Amino acid sequence: MSIPADLKYTASHEWVKTNADGTVTVGITHHAQDLLGDMVFVENPVVGRTLAAGEECAVVESVKAASDVYAPIAGEVVAANADVEASPEAINQDAYAAWMFKLKPANSADVAGLLDAAAYQALVESEAH
Amino acid sequence: MPFIPHTDADVTQMLAAIGAPSIDALFDEIPAALRSGKLTQVPEAMTEMEIDRLMQERAELDGRQLNFIGAGAYEHHIPAAVWQITTRGEFYSAYTPYQAEASQGTLQLIYEYQTMMASLTGMDVSNASLYDGGSALAEAVLMAVRAHKGAMRVLMPKTVSPLYRAVVRSMVKNQHIELVELDYDRVSGTTPVPTADMGDFAALVIPQPNFFGALEDVDALTDWAHAHGGRVIALTNPTSLALLKAPGQWGAQGADIVVGDGQPLGAPLANGGPYYGFMTCKQALVRQMPGRIVGRTVDLDGKQGFTLTLQAREQHIRRSKATSNICTNQGLVVTASTIYMSLLGPQGLKRVAAASHANTRSLLAQLCAIPGVKQAFSGHCFHEAVLQLDRPVAPVLAALQAQGILGGHDLGADYPELGNALLICATETKTAADLQRYAQQLSLALNNK
Amino acid sequence: MLIFEHSRPHRAAHAQMPAHTADISDLPASLLRQDEPLLPQASEMDVVRHYTRLSQKNFSIDTQFYPLGSCTMKYNPRACNSLAMLPGFLARHPFAPAATGQGFLASMYELQEMLKDVTGMAGVSLAPMAGAQGEFAGVAMIRAYHDARGDHARREIIVPNAAHGTNPATAVMCGYTVREIPTDKEGAVDMEALQAAVGPHTAGLMLTNPSTLGVFEKNIQQIQKIVHDAGGLLYYDGANLNAILGRVKPGDMGFDVIHMNLHKTFSTPHGGGGPGAGPVGVAARLLPYMPVPVVARENGLYRLLVEGDIPATIGRMSANHGNAGVLLRAYIYARMLGAEGMHRVAEFATLNANYLLAELQKAGFDIAFPTRRASHEFIVTLKKLKDETGVSAMDFAKRLLDYGYHAPTTYFPMLVPECLLIEPTETESKETLDAFVTAMKTILAEAYATPDMVKGAPYTQPVRRLDDVKAARELDLVWQPAD
């Protein structure tokens, strides 16, 4: 089960979960960590930073690759997961538990515009060819 | 054909295996119009015996003079073992240690080098080297700006080598980084702690010893920079660090990045290169550091081994987002330096530094006793100092050169405000007789107007 | 064992230091070092033995075949080293007057002239200290050219996606943005994509030719027309110059600026990762911007041209004369090759590559671009092997070490899955190539018969495969004493 049905996704391989308090939690997908390999470093955005949709805001690094993480939607960073910075391997162990940061959306309707699980599944399959 | 082993029979068999009628046919995908004709500016081949003769003659033409020039490149004794081991084929003709298992020699050596440089500078970590002191300073400027994530200004004292400042300008000018020049005190030849508001800045560069050989008030400058939100880039001479306070101990918090030219540690003057740039820094900045870095780890059996690490910072992975475009380090010169530092040890390097300091002071005393010669600055120096002459420097240097003496570096072009200023240096390689000879010849040169 | 573990308090190599510690009492304590730096305390023999033994843990050209694609690991003639290290060259201070360096400067001047000839460029500066610095100088000159014309809209450098990582990294250092364009199935620049990418925003195109995929850009004449018609300049990455040395001149292909890697094409040593030398050559319109210093001959005497002589220069790459000693080695190599020998370099590098390609193909290896002629290098793809056995290009490469061969370049270029980029160079004999093919065949058989064994390679090196994840997660970059 590498693409949970209850999450939203981006074409740049972030997952997005809407929380009860209206914030959204962001991480990278199982597929993304699989492509990158063993994680060795995570750099999250600082809390309080305002992000535009699609803005580069975090970095994940493995031994052989590095990848930018993009803001799925516009918003303000309200939390960053220090645990995942201290133990980047948590992303390899469970990409959906190892969240990276939380955003307070500038416009909560933006989430609806992201990919659903089926669309993301199709995207991953198309990239494999 | 030099260095090509093929016999005619080999060529015939190889072409048959390929299924090509001739070597020319192997170039059939290249448009015929592009085929170049005979080279006109490349002479006919020379045998080793012939080129040996030519190069011996040229090297002799360049002769050997009694050298009192420093200004960024210093003549020190280099133990015979240093370059004999360094030029062993296994070091000399190896590639970058990407295949770690087949490169443990180079990798362990770099790990040892990193340890030595980090300790010498009082920093936590070191990279495997950069091109030279000037480009290392430029990389440090870029690194400080990256780490600051805001200010695009770096404070650059005029007591930093003019050539280093030129290199930094060339390398950062297209990135909108402003280099703010800090003037020096005309009496001490050092950089005063700024009293005016300097605005936001990413870093202050502190040269120690500075280009005049003078010793800056590093503690006060470091504390001032930190109090104003900037980092400190220390630019040092590694030999001096056997004697002088390590940048990691400057002020309350120490410098943040340390760079310099590694040439004094085992590289010959050699017309200016190859030398290498060293760079060390605090742990917190390690991911901002450019260049290769070696780490210690274990193999499948749990045995200690060494490998390149943090490669995701580098251009071959990060491409346009890399910390720098740098690819090579100056591996072979670092090899020489590591062997040099091992042979000298803490005691030997300190003696070299102390002897260079004492020789320079002795030379200064002798030269300043000559009428028309005085020391330009008060205050302490390491192994260089500025003289002021009562007449233009160039003819005096020419007269000394006629006597086989390179009398120093003329500061006229870069520091016209200092008048007839001459930068001199006497390392541990100079004997008492050498110093006397310089004093005598300078005295003669000044009397023969 | 580390050199620090050979260390004992108060042991020293006494012959290597001044006999006494000179008086330094004039220096105030506040400026002095209080602790002792962590440098080894060892005898001279300890040090010699330690580093000699370390050297023996390296593969090198002098000991092994090194078919490392894109790196041109050819024989480094010994005379180039011994003659560059003659005392007259080593003792000269870079600030010594030109009159005391005529032997050195004459050699540098002649090297410039020879490099101009083989590249077909109007001027050469020897200043850049490595390929990446040559790239920087080259792109900085492109920028200086456009800026001097007031053409400030040109802010984009086009780079094929197969390019070396230094290309995009360099463009960014010069303040440009990067546009990557794709490569077609035959390993060539996608012409439609190039045509679509160029425009008034185009500062230039950086191209390696033959490309990093080991094939010649057959459309180079059209490529140069497209870029020039759009007002951009053409940059030649000289990484693969060995493939065309003495055969085709980059200047004749229409390139405006080029860097050369003397540590590849002109056989200066790689030294375990440098020093290299990356001279730049320029077409006439970029002459005013060359990096300094440049060597000039005036009235039979040689001198360095500096900022005042080339006022629009992009500036200085190093404090002094670049990697002077490396340049001397390249000069000596060029003189030993001579004009005829230089023509032979590309011919025999190409012969060796195409022979090795043919033999490996016969042995059952998949060639990445089988319809194309190899240049001086070519790519084998092990994708089928990986799919069938799980043995990757990395595993295969590590197993080659057990057979005494340095691995080819793996995982570059990234466009080709499970690739081995193989460059034999002109200095290897047919017997060496045949023996290498035998080892490759043996490993291929092993991969099908005992894949786990291959995945565990190497077995015969000083260490087995290293844990680079641990190395990156638990950074251990400097040795700490136990207490």
Task: Report on this structure.
The complex is a heterotrimer of chains A (129), B (449) and C (483). Chain A is of the alpha+beta class and 129 residues long. Chain A has four helices and nine strands. Chain A has one domain: OB fold (Dihydrolipoamide Acetyltransferase, E2P) (Beta Barrel), CATH 2.40.50. Chain A is globular, with a radius of gyration of 13 Å. The model of chain A has no long low-confidence stretch (mean pLDDT 92). Chain B has two domains: 66-75 and 346-447, Aspartate Aminotransferase, domain 1; 80-339, Type I PLP-dependent aspartate aminotransferase-like (Major domain) (Aspartate Aminotransferase, domain 2, 3-Layer(aba) Sandwich), CATH 3.40.640. Helices cover 36% and strands 14% of the residues of chain B. Chain B is globular, with a radius of gyration of 25 Å. In chain B, 62% of the residues are buried. The mean pLDDT of chain B is 95. Chain C has two domains: 79-337, Aspartate Aminotransferase, domain 2 (3-Layer(aba) Sandwich); 343-469, Aspartate Aminotransferase, domain 1 (Alpha-Beta Complex). In chain C, the strands form three sheets. In chain C, strands 1-7-6-5-4-2-3 form a seven-stranded mixed beta sheet, sandwiched between helices. The longest helix of chain C has 39 residues, at 324-362. The mean pLDDT of chain C is 96. Chains in contact: A-B, A-C, B-C. At the A-C interface, loops of A face helix 15 of C.
Q: What descriptive keywords fit this protein?
A:
heterotrimer; A: 129 residues; alpha+beta; OB fold (Dihydrolipoamide Acetyltransferase, E2P); six-stranded antiparallel beta sheet; three-stranded antiparallel beta sheet; 4 helices; 9 strands; 22% helix; B: 449 residues; alpha/beta; Aspartate Aminotransferase, domain 1; Aspartate Aminotransferase, domain 2; 2 domains; four-stranded antiparallel beta sheet; 15 strands
